[in-house]
Amino acid sequence: MKNKGFTLIELIATMVVLSILMLIAIPNVVGIITRNRNATYIEDAKKLATLGEYKYKSDTNLTLEQTGDCIIMKMSYLDNGDIQDAPNGGEYKTDLSYVVVKRDTSTIKYYVQLVEEIKAGRTKGVKLTDRLLLSENDIGQEVIEETTFAAPPTSGTLTIPAQPSIPPVAATNCTIVENLS
Fold first, then answer.
1. d(CA 85, CA 128)
2. E strand intervals along 58-168
3. Tens-digit pLDDT profile for the chain (181 aa)?
4. Which residues does residue 113 pair with via DSSP β-bridges, in sequence order?
5. CA–CA separation, 90 vs 51, rounded Å?
């Protein structure tokens, strides 16, 4: 009569092989999930900036008369139905997420900041950045996790932090809009 079954050595060898495969697979899966969540921040920031551009172009009450003038549109002002679900299961903070529309000499520039509160006191998102610099290729540099993001000023002057190869930009005579009209 033959025993039909596996020997202890065969079972241990199988477990060792499976353990090695798990050691290789788990970090790769975690890395893919992190990159996808960061890509969601970038895409949502682009959407928010596009909403700000649309609102600026369609609302005749929003005007930028002189070079350096800016309008700060809080997330609560923009129709943001497309970007309600934050990637880490938290909530986007409408008081810290906003779009800055700034008049340069001959162009209008758009800057965006998008912040998610992950857990009490912890936030993650895109710091105030030129919309044109948002790229999925540089996700690691643009998506950050920290405890404090700069709130927009209530009026007056706003300094847009330095970007890669771009010095800090000052915007004067800023108007803030925060409630959906």
1. 20
2. 70-74, 91-92, 98-103, 108-119, 122-130, 143-146, 156-160
3. 567 788 899 999 999 999 999 999 998 898 888 888 888 889 999 999 999 999 999 988 888 888 888 899 999 888 767 787 888 888 898 888 999 999 888 899 999 999 999 877 788 888 888 888 887 566 556 777 776 777 887 767 777 776 666 677 777 778 888 776 5
4. 98
5. 21
Where do the structural domains in the chain lie, given as residue ranges? 28-177
Tell me, what amino acid is at 111? Y
Amino acid at 77: Y
- Give me the residues paired with residue 18 across strands: none
Q: How far is CA 145 from CA 38, 58, 92, 115, 163, in A?
A: 11, 34, 14, 9, 17
108-93-121-113 Cα dihedral, nearest 10 degrees: -10
Q: Quote the CA–CA distance of 115 and 95 in Å, as a whole number.
A: 9
Tokens of 145: 């996790």
Report how far Cα 121 is from the mean position of its chain's Cα atoms.
Answer: 17
